[in-house]
Design goal:
The chain is of the alpha+beta class. Strands 4, 5, 7, 8, 9, 12, 13, 14, 15, 16, 17 and 18 form a twelve-stranded mixed sheet that branches. The protein has a four-stranded antiparallel sheet with strand order 1-2-3-6, with no helix packed on it.
């Protein structure tokens, strides 16, 4: 049912729509008016006439990666703009449910999500003339501060990108077109993925003009030419801290691909992380055993974890058994695909948590002298005598099952044998 909440200025109306029994979404409907076309040296923006419907859920993380802009009462035809136009739902190229596609004259982009980044010290390396990705030894030396920007995470079937692209940024009233500033290859070795993976991971950066201050775009489309009719539209994600204060610790877990039953080990791991001080574990699932799915549902209801469903983009297999075998037999492709959920988790949560840890389900940061991560980190920060810490690294030590069984059988008889890490 539709409940009118209040009336906003300039004929905007905010409404809330309660759909079934699972969630509520509010919709901002705006009538916007055509004004003079303005062309700037760094960007172009247009005011336009259209009925826009933006959907928001109560829980930001419940939103789909694809843009929830379209509802039944959206206009059948998008407003014609002086440059480009607001994409209609049937003009978007979806790929494997969670991705959207842009076909260019030199490569195909598979876009997963977009984020607002207002870090004052964030840097990027501008593209060379013509849009060529600079992969020379001078790459790092050309870095420059970006300022407020939109970051898109996705994959491309080429490693030597040469196509020039643009971001169509959709604000409440304007369409702003900005050139892509950087294609950041998300792997430490540029040549590692060559011929070993069909798709390569990229972080795509578009700077937001200073005139927009701290305004967050509602959505972004990636296009090859400024005035192209976009085939993709991603909601720009910005999860600010609750009550203007960051929480402590979060854990990011790559896409789970476990057709075998690891439910007991997983439950033990979630509980251990929670005891140590992890306030939320962000989990991405690809292919999991039914019992694992039940464990995930249980801990999600307890508020300990957050689950996001994930697929592989492009022609990579997503049928359960085929996907598992593909990831096992194509190790580099597996690693490059893992960078998408890792970076998605970082950009969704970097404003909400002070520390974010990337862990596999057989890993844990174990304090030797403290009862929690908080106590341990507070001491480390005190010893460093600075709050300006970007990363804390921890020594990796292996504890194999066969070590326990061979050297010290029945060492911990008071611990149930079905437990794994606690042994």
């Amino acid at each position: 049912k539709l409940i009118l909440l209040d009336s906003l200025l300039q004929e905007k109306t905010r409404m809330i729509l309660v759909k079934n029994n699972y969630s509520s979404r509010s919709f901002l409907l705006s009538l916007l008016y055509v004004t003079t076309l303005l062309i700037g040296t760094q960007h172009m923006y247009y005011k336009y006439t259209s009925l826009r419907v933006f959907a928001e859920t109560e829980n930001e993380d419940m939103k789909s990666n694809v843009n929830q802009i379209y509802m039944e009462n959206a206009p059948k035809e998008s407003a014609q703009l002086p440059c480009g136009k607001f994409p209609s739902l049937d003009s978007l190229y979806y790929d494997n449910k969670h991705w959207q596609r842009l076909n260019t004259t030199d490569g195909t982009f598979y876009l997963y999500a977009a984020y607002y980044d207002n870090r004052s010290d964030a840097v990027a390396t501008p593209l060379t003339p013509g849009g060529l990705l600079n992969l020379t030894d001078e790459y790092v030396s050309k870095e420059q501060t970006v300022g407020p920007s939109v970051r898109l995470i996705g994959m491309n079937n080429k490693i030597d990108l040469s196509v020039k692209t643009y971001c169509q940024l959709w604000f409440d009233y304007e369409l702003v077109v900005e050139p892509v500033l950087e294609y950041k290859y998300i792997w430490f070795n540029v040549n590692a993925g060559q011929n070993q993976s069909p798709l390569q991971p990229y972080l795509i950066t578009c700077r937001i003009s200073k005139k927009y201050g701290n305004r967050v775009p509602s959505a972004v489309s990636l296009v090859e030419r400024e005035c192209d009719h976009a085939s993709n539209m991603l909601r720009v994600i910005y999860n600010g801290p609750e009550e203007n204060e960051k929480k402590g610790f979060a854990v990011c877990v790559k896409g789970l691909s476990f057709p075998d039953d690891v439910s007991i080990k997983l439950a033990e791991w979630f509980d251990l992380l929670n005891i140590l001080g992890a306030e939320k574990v962000f989990v991405y699932d690809l292919d999991i055993h039914p019992n694992v799915s039940k464990v995930l549902d249980y801990y999600e209801k307890k508020g300990i974890i957050d689950i996001k469903h994930l697929t592989l983009p492009g022609d990579q297999p997503n049928a359960p058994n085929e996907q598992t075998e593909y990831l096992r037999s194509h190790l580099m492709a597996k690693r490059l695909n893992e960078l998408i959920p890792y970076n998605d988790c970082l950009y969704r949560n970097m404003y909400r948590y002070r520390f974010i840890s990337l862990l596999d389900i057989d890993e844990v940061i174990m304090p030797m002298k403290h009862n929690s991560w908080k106590e341990m980190v507070e001491l480390l920060i005190h010893l460093l005598q600075t709050e300006d810490v970007a990363t804390l690294g921890f020594r990796n030590v292996y504890f194999m099952d066969e070590m326990l069984e061979k050297n010290k059988p029945n060492l911990h008889q008071d611990i149930p044998s079905f437990l794994h890490m606690l042994q």
